[in-house]
């Protein structure tokens, strides 16, 4: 087998291995997909909306019962006042009746006889006798009427008291239901928040996986093209091209070389040429470290923060890139050797600024 055929075979094996690794990485985690999490989140939101509706209904019922309780308390107070008045009137009527009976029967034996004997005729006698009888019947009837009134008012008070007790029982039942619904709302809200966070992470992970798959595919294509280019006859390449290929490893040199930006030393110490990339504080760029501080504990700031390989540029070092002073504050697993990752304000800028090579100088 010729050398060219061997190189092409190696390139094919590399592509297969990269694809297999990418598939393995995507298959390790059996977490729910974003569509499943979206469905679960929607169901929880619907459930939460229903619970909030139940809570509002319970609050409305409790408010109505509170109003009813106030009206019932007013009615009970009025009924008690009427009962007190009726009892006072009955006592007054009873005292008046006793006085009249005492006057008629207890003022002396002659009083009643004298009243009857003073009659001028039989008609007058009967009239006076009927008068005494009428007074007694009037007192008795008035007393019975007052007693009936007291009984009716007392019965009305008992009914109001029974209604009041029923109302209290209903209020306690509604209060218990409200506590139960509020507990369910809190639990559902917590679960919804958890699933919403999972959904956001799943979406970010899917975006990251898509980006990694594209990068792996591009890397495989670059590797295959590099192998194919290395297999061409030497007389088809310029001497400059041979020197370049021998100086740079195949895994670090892309097919289309990024733009080289020469720097200006101004008497500063040169650190050499570096591959410049860009990153932001999002999940796609930083993964689980997204939103957090830098490796040196500072808050990443556009126009200042860069990620470096500490073995090449120690943290805290101030460097000049294209006339701009940056501070080495962060690190990264992919930032090894002469690579610098410049922090920018948004993910859109990471692709907008792209990748290039630039001379880097010590600022101090």
Task: List its traits.
single chain; 364 residues; alpha/beta; Helix Hairpins; Barwin-like endoglucanases; 2 domains; 6-stranded mixed beta barrel; 7 helices; 65% helix; rod-shaped
Rounded radius of gyration (Å): 51 Å
Q: What's the helical proportion of residues? A: 55-70%
What quaternary form is this?
Answer: single chain
Quote the distance from N terminus to C terminus: 57 Å
Do you know the CATH architecture of the largest domain? Orthogonal Bundle
Largest sheet: 6 strands, mixed, barrel
Task: Report the principal-axis shape.
Answer: rod-shaped
CATH class of the largest domain reads Mainly Alpha
- Rounded mean pLDDT is 78
CATH topology of the largest domain: Helix Hairpins
Strand content: 5-15%
What does it look like?
The structure is a single chain. With 364 residues, the protein is an alpha/beta fold. The protein has two domains: 1-257, Helix Hairpins (Orthogonal Bundle), CATH 1.10.287; 258-364, Beta Barrel (Barwin-like endoglucanases). Helix content is 65%, strand content 11%. The chain has helices spanning 3-28, 34-106, 109-117, 122-230, 239-247, 283-286, 347-353, and strands at 259-261, 270-279, 305-307, 318-321, 324-330, 339-343, 356-362. Strands 2-6-3-5-4-7 form a six-stranded mixed β-barrel. Strand 4 and strand 5 form a beta hairpin. Helix 1 (3-28) runs antiparallel to helix 4 (122-230). The longest helix has 109 residues, at 122-230. It is rod-shaped and about 160 Å long. The chain starts with a helix and ends with a strand. Mean pLDDT is 78; it is low at 23-29 and 232-257.
């Amino acid at each position: 087998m010729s050398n060219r055929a061997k190189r092409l075979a190696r390139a094919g094996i590399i592509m297969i291995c990269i694809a297999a690794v990418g598939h393995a990485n995507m298959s390790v985690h059996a977490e729910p997909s974003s569509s499943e999490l979206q469905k679960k989140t929607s169901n929880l939101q619907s459930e939460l909306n229903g619970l909030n509706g139940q809570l509002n209904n319970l609050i409305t019922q409790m408010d109505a019962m509170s109003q009813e309780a106030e009206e019932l308390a007013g009615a009970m107070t009025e009924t008690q006042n009427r009962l007190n008045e009726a009892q006072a009137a009955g006592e007054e009527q009873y005292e008046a009746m006793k006085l009249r009976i005492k006057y008629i029967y207890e003022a002396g034996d002659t009083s009643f006889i004298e009243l009857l004997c003073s009659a001028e005729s039989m008609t007058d006698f009967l009239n006076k006798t009927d008068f005494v009888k009428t007074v007694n019947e009037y007192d008795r009837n008035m007393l019975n009427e007052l007693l009936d009134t007291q009984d009716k008012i007392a019965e009305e008070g008992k009914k109001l008291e029974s209604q009041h007790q029923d109302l209290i029982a209903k209020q306690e039942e509604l209060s218990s239901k409200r506590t139960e619904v509020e507990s369910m709302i809190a639990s559902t809200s917590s679960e919804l928040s958890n699933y919403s966070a999972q959904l956001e992470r799943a979406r970010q992970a899917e975006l990251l996986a898509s980006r990694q798959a594209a990068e792996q595919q591009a890397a495989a294509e670059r590797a295959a093209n590099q192998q194919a280019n290395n297999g061409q006859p030497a007389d088809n390449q310029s001497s400059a091209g041979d020197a370049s290929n021998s100086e740079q490893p195949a895994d670090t040199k892309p097919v289309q070389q990024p733009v080289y930006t020469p720097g200006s030393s101004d008497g500063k110490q040169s650190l050499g040429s570096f591959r410049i990339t860009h990153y932001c504080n999002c999940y796609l760029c930083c993964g689980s470290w997204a939103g957090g501080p830098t490796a040196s504990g500072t808050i990443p700031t556009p126009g200042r923060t860069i990620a470096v390989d500490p073995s090449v540029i120690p943290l805290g070092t101030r460097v000049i890139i294209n006339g701009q002073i940056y501070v080495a504050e962060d690190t990264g697993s992919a930032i090894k050797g002469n690579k610098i990752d410049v922090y920018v304000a948004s993910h859109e800028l990471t692709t907008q600024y792209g990748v290039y090579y630039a001379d880097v100088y010590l600022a101090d």
